[in-house]
Specification:
By secondary structure, this protein is α/β, with parallel strands linked by helices. The longest helix has 21 residues. Helix content is 30%, strand content 22%.
């Protein structure tokens, strides 16, 4: 399973691919758009908008840089919210992942951010299915129906094929997310088509499939300084969300 759309083998130009350079920190801003079923089948990605912020030296920088990246994410969030005419009156933030594993706790870390102290949106960290015995999709769908949720944002760690992208790439999409996709779990996807309301996703790769290095078994490798990486990225995402979802 490929989590980052720009790691698929499809010709990006056919997806309206655009790449611009940010003003600071050697950051690349990528946008791709899947408009029809044929492109969706060929890429393996659902129809929708995809934005990626690639910041290769992000793990080595400081709060000033993190604030700058957060503003880049905020700008793209605001654009997509306006473009999609999202009703934010009853928003649910879903932090996916296993809180006991740092490489998989980005969603939990974001949901628990103290930057959300004065925000009105709802939050949940449903944990992983083997811990709860309940599929994450069922929890989210039940909450959407019961609480009359109008908009969902899902946060999770992703898997990449490249060491250079670990903790360095943020992907924002309008297409939702499949829990456990990085380890090929065939869970139901959380998206507008399945839960009935618009669903954005934000993901960052903190794992790499060891098959990329020629191993036969599927192992997920993470950076040595994973805790600090996750905390920094969590701050970036939380700050953007806290300023957008009011």
């Amino acid at each position: 399973m490929i989590d980052l759309i720009d790691e698929c083998s499809y010709e990006f130009q056919k997806l309206g691919y655009k790449k611009v350079k940010a003003k600071k920190y050697d950051i690349d801003l990528l946008s791709l758009h899947i408009y029809d079923e044929k492109q969706s089948r060929e890429t393996g990605f659902d129809k929708g908008d995809y934005y990626i912020i690639n910041a290769p030296i992000l793990p080595y920088l400081d709060k000033e840089c993190f604030d700058y990246v957060s503003q880049l994410l905020k700008k793209r969030l605001l654009f997509l919210l306006k473009k999609s005419k999202i009703d934010q009156s009853n928003t649910l933030l879903v932090g996916l992942g296993n809180p006991e594993i740092w490489a998989d706790r980005l969603g939990v870390q974001v949901c628990n951010s103290q930057l959300f102290f004065d925000t009105k949106f709802k939050k949940i960290c449903p944990n992983v299915q083997y811990q709860t015995g309940i599929e994450t999709f069922d929890i989210v769908k039940a909450l959407v129906d019961k609480l009359s949720i109008t908009f969902v944002i899902v946060i999770d760690s992703l898997c990449t094929n490249s060491l250079s992208r670990l903790g360095c790439s943020l992907q924002l999409t309008t297409t939702g997310m499949t829990p456990g996709s990085a380890i090929n779990h065939s869970n139901n996807k959380i998206c507008k088509q399945t839960i009935g309301v618009p669903c954005f996703s934000i993901g960052v790769p903190f794992m790499i499939d060891a098959k990329s290095f020629g191993f036969d078994n599927q192992l997920l490798l993470a950076p040595k300084d994973i805790k600090e990486n996750v905390e920094n990225i969590s701050y970036i995402i939380s700050k953007a969300l806290a300023e957008v979802l009011r």
